[in-house]
Amino acid sequence: MIARFGIAFMFLVVATSPGAAEPFHHPFGEWREYNRDWLAACPDAIDEDAADYYGFACFASTGSAELNAAGQPAYKLTLIHNRLTGGRDVALTVAANGALVDEKRPLLMTFGNTKPERFDFPADLETRYTAANQYFIADPARSAAVLAAMVERNAVTLSIPMQGEAAPRIVRLSLRGVSASLDFMATYARRVAQY
Fold first, then answer.
1. What confidence tens digit (pLDDT) does each residue in 130-178 have?
2. In this predicted model, which residue has the larger pLDDT, 45 or 96?
3. Cα–chain-centroid distance for residue 98?
4. How far is the C-alpha of 107 from the C-alpha of 116, rounded, in Å?
5. Of 19, 32, 42, 169, which one is least surrounded by beta carbons within 10 A?
6. C-beta of residue 32 within 8 angstroms of C-beta of residue 26
7. Residue 75: how many CB atoms within 10 A of its CB?
């Protein structure tokens, strides 16, 4: 009898964990879904004239365990699904306390035991919109290749060069939940009131 209740309790805990969550409507006016280590969101409305991607995109992010003074991840990886064109982008945000990226040195991205991908500033990584600390992969074909690797792997290791620091900062980010987040964004991209 106790074993049966224990099994039922374990099923209840697993079934209600954030990794198994269903889409829900958030009071901020967007649909959200937790997918393992990723949070995906699609705002209720599309603003075609928005100054940043929040107005016309769905997005999903994962962050580092290290937090900054604002209590936000010091490093964040974001997938952006443009709701107008269907295009996808990959972006890295660096928001560590008192740290600035050294754009004279390359950033390295490693998936498992593969050879590191090298990204130079600003040829391979560029800033867009109003965020000076968010770097997008500039070449769409390379961005698509990185996204494909993200779907296949469970983690990525970033080697981020910082101003005034000889050694780059090594950051490991989870990729568990990327596929489900992509599915969520594709499904909810056209779920808006005005269309």
1. 778 999 999 999 999 999 999 999 999 999 999 999 999 999 999 999 9
2. 96
3. 22
4. 10
5. 19
6. yes
7. 22
Distance CA 75, CA 172 (A): 9
- Domain 23-188 part of CATH 2.60.40.1880: yes
- Catalogue the long-range contacts made by 23-30 (C-beta closer than 8 Å, 24 or more residues apart): 23/184, 23/188
- 98: three-class secondary structure by DSSP: coil
**Angle ∠(171,175,179) on CA atoms, nearest 5:** 160
Residue 182 has pLDDT above 90, yes or no: yes
Longest dimension (CA), the chain: 65
35/59 Cα distance (integer angstroms): 12
Query: What are 103-115's pLDDT values in tens digits?
Result: 999 999 999 999 9
pLDDT in tens, 9-61: 333 334 444 445 688 888 888 888 999 999 999 888 787 887 777 777 899 99
Chain position carrying tokens 């995906």: 40
Report the relative pairing of strands 88-94 and 134-137 from DSSP bridges.
Answer: antiparallel
* 44: its two tokens: 């209720």
For residue 176, the tally of other CB atoms under 10 A from its CB is 15
